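Quick one, T. Sequence first:
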Amino acid sequence: MIHRNGRIELICGSMFSGKTEELIRRLRRAEIAKQKVRVFKPIIDNRYDKTRVASHSGIGFDAKPVHTASDILDHVEDDVTVVGIDEVQFFDETLIQVIRKLADERDLRVIMAGLDLDFRAEPFGIMPQLLCEAEYVDKLHAICMICGEEACRTQRLVNDEPAYYDDPIILVGAAEAYEPRCRKHHIVRYR
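Structure tokens:
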């Protein structure tokens, strides 16, 4: 099955909001519809599995780890109709040209997932451009670990204390370093 028109979908939100689970759900539905699916992830994301996209709850989907966004084009065969890309915030602006080529020139459905905000609650990398590029955007929310309200932010913790603003943006981790927080309870410390 092929698509008549390519399209770009983006699933975003804080950590622990279910972004990867939603990506996997869409990919599995595409397979049920007998579509050929190819999935990618940045090579630096090796938290749960090196060759699978995996959610914090443990569900996964086979994926090709790539060093750069342009590497994706080398691994999308002619019979592929759906491309999934997880942790898109880790890619550089080359990803924009890659997804345009896949959706515009090859008429593929591109489904991406990633953090919209970094631990400082600032736009994460190329996410603002991806939000504008996508036809369909879903923002998911987690549950604030302080008050139980909807969480839209990711709190980085260092020795159980909020991280400092000038700490490195990228620190691959899971529950040992991050937790979801609402706007009210999200804290960034300054030195």
